[in-house]
Amino acid sequence: MDLTPEDKKIGKDNFNQVIGTTRRDFLVGTVATAGATGFGLGSMYFNYGAKLDDPLRIGVIGTGDEGSVLIGALNPDFVDVVAIADIRPYNLHRAFYGDLSSPNAKKARPGLLKVYEDRYGWKDRTEAEKHIKVYADKYQEMYEDDSVEAVIIALPLWLHHVASIEAMKAGKHVLTEKLMAQTVGQCKEMGRVAKETNKVLATGHQRHYSILYANAVDTIKRGFIGDIHHIRAQWHRGNMPGKDSWRPPMPTEYMEENTYLDLRRKVKKEQGDAAEGALRTEHKILEQYFSLVKKSKDTKNYSYAEREIWEQHAQQAREQLKDLPVKAEDYGYMDNTLENGSGYKVTALEELIRWRLWNRTGAGLMAELGSHQLDAASIFISAQNEGGGKVYPLNVTAAGQRSIFPPNREVDDHVYATYEFPAPGYYKHDQKDGEVADPNKKIVVTYSSINGNGYGGYGEVVMGTKGTLILEKEKDVMLYKGSSTATNVKVGKGRDGPQLDTTESGGQEAAVAAAATPVDVSRGYREEIEHWAWVIRNPGKGEVKCGPKVAMADAIIALTTNIAIKEQRRIEFKPEWFDIDSPETPESIAPRDTSELG
Hints:
CATH superfamily of the largest domain: Dihydrodipicolinate Reductase, domain 2
Strand content: 15-25%
Largest sheet: 9 strands, mixed
Number of domains: 3
Radius of gyration: 25 Å
Helix content: 25-40%
Shape: globular
Low-confidence stretches: 1-27, 486-518
Distance between the termini: 49 Å
């Protein structure tokens, strides 16, 4: 761990008194060893192999935003992609070449050519497709391929359940993106099929494989912050109408530039500036394409390297336009008129591309963002559970509304929730017994996820009787000793824009340690895929950290919160909901017999 100049003023003795010999010290000492031995940091930290002699042969089903992030996290020493599937030409293009939307997008989604550059050295998609089969129609055809041993499923939420069960019944192991499924009954069906088929089923709640979160758990277990009594979590984003990441531009019909300009002139003349502006918004991708083509041909104002970059961007925009002919209705998507009084008509293609906005295909902010942070809160609370295992919440009260965006969607843009979890001493024996010893022994978790203002970003504040642990953006962890001093929050400008600088005020104790690591630690995507592959290749030697039981619990928390928001009531969590073998669910829809599935 690195110390800032302010931290060093505290003194080495005081620092060691608080931190002690923890896994942080192991982490710092391991970095050099990992580099020297060829072991990955995750494999050493979580104690699985450095690589697989026979990398797991996988298919990736769904190569959109999240699927391409998972592709970017692949380690060729553990997995070998031999197939991909997506019905959108644009997503298939990104799967190979990466996402050029921004430098950050390219870093997160570098594409298969880059990921397997050192191993195969493919020059272009044509070369890569000699090794990787592309399924542009029905992903189910991939299940008939014996060379595919396992699949990563990153489809829209409403398809996680059916695609996973089909895969396991076809003999494939599965890593599905979060949320596990759209209903708790579906989660139970998935867990039961995994058991019956003896297939490894993992869900992508990557904080289970984050070294920073593992360090935080170790800090809690060692008692450095005392007894947890409150956790505050948030995920705030600056999304505004017109700049909403969940509402990407729709592809429109391609036309030559002169034809398009003539259309703009005609609309402006006959209908005015507002109509022309609406036309340009509708043809946003086409506008971008023409602009990029012009730059790529401009020999006067740009260098050859710059023109080459613009040409690549133009090609990506051109690929987006190829999504227009996709017949989304052939794959279960539907035309629909929203029932919110707006009269807004959703086409099947829009439901496919903007699936997070609709109740039929997604589950809103709690599924996409809140599930991660309530998972983290549960991990921290479970760290105090002497009996081991995941601690489940007692109840939830929640509210939500759409206060920023127009009625062109169904999901809320603001959600707030309060949970009560049992603290040590709440139960007489253990959680399963359910007999309460002290009803005051509770931990309150508050959560908010909003659009329209990204102040504070996202992270968790874990408050204990001896100190506070702050985790920010899955990158930074700060430990504050003591519990009586106030916190002064300042906003300054750093490398990545406004930064949240949290320091103690009042001349009391400063931050004991900023748990910065000497390396750019992964958010856990890479490690979760490595460990999933390692568990499959080494049966009986371990289990995935986010298997059916854990993932289902995360889904129950998120989906029950949605019910509390919709019905505007407090909901008590029932132990039977968390039992995969029980027919009880918060939706009151029992899981089906597995013989009827797949």
